[in-house]
Amino acid sequence: MYYIPTTLHEIVQAADYEVVFHYLLVSTLSMLFTEYIVTIQEEVHFIWDSRFGLVKSLYLLNRYIPPMNVLYSLYVFIFTEKTGETLCRKEFIIMGSVTYLQFAIAYAVLCVRAYAVWSSVKSVLLLLVGLFITSITVEAYVVGNYFAGSLAFNLGSGVPGCLILLTNNKMWIALVVIVCSDAVTLALLLIKSVTSSRSSRSGLLTVMVRDGIGYFVCVMGLSIANMIVLRTVAPMMRDLYILPQASLQNVLCVRLLLHLHVVNDRESNLSTSDMTLVELKDSRQTRRRPAGMTDTYSSCTDSIVYVAPFAAHHD
């Protein structure tokens, strides 16, 4: 059964809700542009000249699809003057489909990270592929029903923008699927971290686990907030935070990938420094020692050589 505002009070209330959504879109776009300015230097250094492949493709998709979708949403809900019911609903479906894509590419990044940690183990690959297909299929079904229960509504002749009313709140099912799927990829990282011995556990693995936990906590918090909104607020407000959550997850995925590049670059520089110090130590050991000199000098030198990487790491 469709909810259609008919009284003057309901129409004014719907317009107020629409204004809140407009502000939220502007805030989301501001966040995306701010994030771009903050991280553009790292992107230029690590991404632009890198070999084009799956990881770079996912990075670019997570980076540039969200602002384009938000800009399109601003056009649809604020600036467009052709506000027929059919056109508004069509534009809403396009925006929602791109939002669904944003969630999918964010999860793809998590699957690729988990697969890389397990050193291309075939069973893990099959698990992640099956999980990814199941996740996007269930989400597509829920989103399709969500679109089917939408109705375009015009605020009045000559008033720009579209107002979309929703008749179901089943989107919470997709949010539950998102949280559960993210939990599985995080569990794979944690299992790998626990089963790896301390000697073989790399700094990258530690960073990936720590970042993965932070990402999961953020996604869970956003999803719970969205589920509460979907279950409690008026129909015209049910999808208020869906697009901002998708955009924020894309931002977090970009940060995950950039942080891995930063940590890997730092470890590479430290390894180069270690090799230089070891070569210096070997050259000193091969020098002719003055008569009567004990091994005390060599022991002190060795201590400096092996303490240097630790000090550099903490600096």
Q: Mind describing the biggest β-sheet?
A: 2 strands, antiparallel
Provide the succession of SSEs: HHHHEEHHHH
Uncertain ranges: 274-278, 284-315
Residue share in helix: over 70%
With strands numbered from the N-terminus, the spatial order across the biggest sheet is 1-2
CATH architectural grouping: Up-down Bundle
Terminal CA distance: 63 Å
CATH topology: Rhopdopsin 7-helix transmembrane proteins
The overall number of domains is: 1
At the first level of CATH, what is the class? Answer: Mainly Alpha
Cα-based radius of gyration, to the nearest Å: 26 Å
Mean pLDDT: 77
Please explain how this structure is put together.
The longest helix has 44 residues, at 242-285. This protein has a two-stranded antiparallel ribbon. It contains 8 helices and 2 strands, in the order ααααββαααα. Mean pLDDT is 77; it is low at 274-278 and 284-315. The chain has helices spanning 8-46, 54-79, 85-117, 122-148, 171-195, 203-232, 242-285, 296-314; strands at 150-153, 163-166. The protein is mainly α. The protein starts with 7 loop residues before the first helix and ends with a helix. The chain has one domain (8-272): Rhopdopsin 7-helix transmembrane proteins (Up-down Bundle). It is globular. InterPro entries: DUF6533. The chain crosses the membrane at residues 20-39, 60-80, 92-112, 124-148, 171-191, 212-234.
